[in-house]
Design brief:
- 22% of the residues lie in helices and 39% in strands.
- The chain is α+β, with helices and mostly antiparallel strands.
- It starts with a helix and ends with a helix.
- 31% of the residues are buried.
Length: 188
C-alpha cells in the first residue's frame, strides 16, 4: 500500500468529531473542496489560480470554493456549488470523503474545507471571470512536511507568521497552504 493510499484509508476511517475553530465576530462562512484525483501516475490535487481581475486575492492559488449563499443547504453544498460554478465539474462527479477543521482568515472568513474525490473523466470549463489557471500537483509532495516553509507577512501594520510552499513553480500561501499543511500534519 502506497503512502497516499494509506493517507486516504486513514482519512476515511477517521471517526473523531471535528471541533470548530473559535468563530470570530463579523466573519463570513466559506467552504472549499480539496479535490483529489487518481491519475495513471498517482494521486493529484486540483487547484485554481484566481483571476488577476478579482478585487480580493487576485492571482492567488486556491481550492475551488467560496462564500456560503443563503440558498445553500449546507457548507458542503456551498463547496460543491462553487466547484461547478468555477470549473464546471458537477455534483455527480464529486465524492466528498470528509471535512477538515475550519480556520479563520485575516480577511474575515471562516473556511470549511472538504476532502473530495473527483471521478475522471471530467471536462473542466473554467469561469473566465474567476479563474485564470487550473492545474494539478502530486498529493505525495503535498503530504511531505518538508515541502512547507515558514513565512512572515505584514497586514494592517501587524506582522504574522504564515506557511507557504512552492511546487512545480506554483507558490501557495495563506489559507490554502494552511489547509494543506493541516492535512500533511494530520495524515502525512
Amino acid at each position: 500500500m502506497s503512502r497516499t493510499e494509506h493517507f486516504l484509508n486513514r482519512f476515511l476511517l477517521q471517526n473523531a468529531p471535528l471541533t470548530p475553530v473559535d468563530i470570530h465576530p463579523g466573519t463570513h462562512d466559506a467552504a472549499v473542496l480539496i479535490p483529489i484525483i487518481l491519475r495513471s501516475d498517482g494521486w493529484t490535487v486540483l487547484f485554481t489560480q484566481r483571476s488577476w481581475q478579482l478585487r480580493h486575492h487576485p492571482g492567488q492559488v486556491c481550492f475551488p470554493g467560496g462564500r456560503k449563499d443563503n440558498t445553500d443547504s449546507s457548507l458542503q453544498m456551498t463547496a460543491i456549488r462553487e466547484m461547478e460554478e468555477e470549473l464546471g465539474i458537477t455534483e455527480k462527479q464529486i465524492r466528498v470523503l470528509g471535512q477538515l477543521s475550519s480556520g479563520h482568515t485575516f480577511t474575515g472568513y471562516q473556511i470549511h474545507p472538504y476532502l473530495a474525490l473527483i471521478q475522471p473523466p471530467f471536462k473542466i470549463i473554467p469561469a473566465k471571470d474567476e479563474v485564470s489557471a487550473v492545474f494539478e500537483l502530486p498529493l505525495e509532495t503535498l503530504l511531505d512536511l518538508n515541502t512547507y516553509q515558514p513565512l512572515i507577512t505584514t497586514r494592517n501594520g501587524t506582522t504574522h507568521k504564515i506557511i507557504g510552499l512552492t511546487v512545480d513553480g506554483w507558490f501557495i500561501w495563506g489559507a490554502t497552504a494552511r489547509i494543506l499543511y493541516q492535512l500533511a500534519k494530520q495524515f502525512g
